[in-house]
Amino acid sequence: MEMAERVEALRQKLNQYGYEYYVLDRPSVPDAEYDRLMNELIEIETDYPELRSPDSPTQRVGGAPLDAFVKVTHDTPMLSLGNVFSKEELVEWVGRIEKDLGYSPLFVAELKFDGLAVSLKYEAGRLVRGATRGDGTTGEDITQNLKTIRAIPLRLNEDVTFEVRGEAYMPKRSFEHLNDERERLGEPLFANPRNAAAGSLRQLDSKIAAARNLAFFAYGLVSTDDLVASHDESLAYLGRLGIAVSQEYTTCQTADELWDYIETYVTRRSELPYEIDGIVIKVAAYEEQEQLGFTAKSPRWAVAYKFPAEEVVTT
Ligand SMILES: NC(=O)n1nc(-c2ccco2)nc1N
Hints:
Elements: H1 3-22, H2 31-47, E1 71-73, E2 83-84, H3 87-101, E3 107-113, E4 116-123, E5 126-132, E6 138-140, H4 143-146, E7 162-169, H5 172-184, H6 193-201, H7 206-210, E8 215-222, H8 231-240, E9 250-252, H9 255-268, E10 276-283, H10 286-292, E11 302-306
Parallel strand pairs: 2-11
Antiparallel strand pairs: 1-6, 3-9, 3-10, 4-5, 4-7, 7-8, 10-11
Helix pairs in contact: 1-2
């Protein structure tokens, strides 16, 4: 087979396997097969540099370490969520929404991943910028570090231009392995996966970030075109494009359905391979979100139910 064709075939396969692993959470081949194909692609691109392209899955670890992070401004502010801490407060919040709209809207309930909020800009299907939330208006350009996360495609299977919002996080197993290694080396331990993810994304050398096994779930789409009309459609759309989206979300019509979903995860939380600190509830239809608008710092159409702080069992 001609080398260029072989490279294209390898890229297609790696993207397909990445999609099955990160979006469907249902890999069809063992990790060893993925690694074998990736190594073959790296070898060919090393022998034939003219076949290498910036959006090849091999181009995830950047060049030299940065001296500093460049500041970026978010065209659309990344707002923080208001919180509720009980069923009563949740029922009150739903009641206010129904009163403002004059009817009961459809809601989306989804997991609240305990990591770092990030923004990904895609232009014509290519990842052009990744940034931290920062203060919501000004963040830091951490494109080099976010490119090391396999759940974030460098090239989408459609030439779309939009911004994706999501949470970069460190899975529990990666966190345990990292702290075991740091303990062995006599280095200070990270207190929790959230701090470990934040510390990893703040590395100026993307080779260090690449070694931290970070992950990502998209939870929002910012676009000027009318690509989709609701939040639940945006999650399905992002998944179809190959961007990692958690499949644990659902739609609910009433406060009771929302509470049932929340109660499911109070028990399931400890079995999840990543940490969550609550459940996020959003009005589904974008039209209704626009109608409800924002307070000074939070959307009126979304709220986070925060789990009670887990009592620390001191043995
Ligand atoms: N942290 C987290 O998982 N989030 N955060 C949002 C959010 C923040 C602002 C709008 O939406 N949504 C989810 N699932």
